Amino acid sequence: MNQEPAVADAATTESATLRYFNASDAFDDQVQALKRDGAMVVNDLIDARTVDRVLQELQPHFDAIGRQFEDDFNGYATRRLASVLAYSMHAAALIEQPLVLKIMDALLLPHCINYRIGSSTGIQILPGEKAQVLHQDDDIYPVRIPGIDWQVSVMFALNDFTVENGATRVALGSHDSGYTKGCDGETLQAVMSRGSALFYLGAAWHGGGANRSDASRTGVITTYSLGWLRQEVNQYLTVPRERAAQFSRTVQNLLGYRGHGRYLGRFAEDPDGFWLNKH
Ligand SMILES: O=C(O)CCC(=O)C(=O)O
Fold it and tell me: How many domains does the chain fold into?
């Protein structure tokens, strides 16, 4: 990944303000802010009960295996789960949340027949963690075409995200800075309440914040990517097929159990119809 050294956080930047919406606000305004600024927040998108359940399901796995991805990029005081659907049935409610999908429809469907999740990662930043290096999620893809977003990410807050506990840092407008130019480092933090969601474009420079509080900060980042791209995480191997069969058809499609048009991803045999060759 292209990485820039982290710089000081700011609640606001001189040039830009992170926009916060309620789900009931004008849809076009939400999409416009996301496209223009590269990021925006929707308040209180996920109800408290669902958030509780997802946390309850994920926490034992954070504790048991959350350290497996520790490295200079992910940090050494951050627990991670590579594919939350493998550990939490209720996480499906985040991933297929209707407004999230409506926003993905608006951004991604102009460029593909259907889209899928690239990754869906549980991230728990523990007290004492340093700020993560700024990076772009979509630089896993080696080319960029102006005007086309390869993917859009959503960070669902499972507890309140604050300046102190490491709310995600975003450089507004940085998605337009060009593939190799990098980020000028001016960031603000997406402070948001539990159940809210930060949306950001795949090209937007961002990173986890430093946790200077005495409690953990937990969220789930799901990336939604164009259906003709290879998924970042191999969902067929990380979410066992028997488990995938328990989710809604929408989540199965998002996991990738669906061809892209008639030919891409064909599985002609399709003995039980689990794979949809139709679009
Ligand atoms: O934890 C966060 O706030 C952001 C993490 C992130 O961007 C990443 O690991 O790719």
Answer: 1
* For the CA of 123, the nearest atom of ligand 1: 1
> Has residue 262 been placed in a domain?
no
Q: Inform me whether the pLDDT recorded for 27 exceeds 70.
A: yes
146 C-alpha to center of ligand 1: Å?
Answer: 24
- pLDDT 10s digits, 138-193: 999 998 888 899 999 999 999 999 999 999 999 998 888 655 555 666 899 999 99
Domain assignment present for residue 67? The answer is: yes
Ligand 1 atom nearest to 167, measured from its CA: 3
Please indicate, yes or no, if residue 267 is contained in any of the structural domains.
no
Going by alpha carbons, the residue nearest to atom 4 of ligand 1 is 208
| Strand 169-170 with 206-207, pairing | antiparallel
Integer CA distances (angstroms), 51 to 8, 27, 103, 113, 200, in order: 30, 24, 21, 31, 21
Give domain status of residue 84, yes or no: yes
Give the residue numbers spanning the domain of 30: 3-237
- CATH number at 149 reads 2.60.120.620
The Cα–Cα gap between 201 and 104 comes to 11
pLDDT tens, residue by residue, 241-279:
999 999 999 999 999 999 898 888 888 777 677 776 554
Instruction: Say what the pTM is.
Output: 0.92
Nearest atom, ligand 1, residue 125 CA: 1
CA-CA distance, 161 to 7, in Å (whole number)? 19
| Contact between residue 42 and residue 196 where contact means Cβ atoms under 8 Å apart | yes
Asked whether 206 lines ligand 1 (CB < 6 A), one says: yes
Counting ligand 1 atoms within 8 A of each CB, the residue from 73, 76, 168 with the most, and so the one to mutate, is: 168
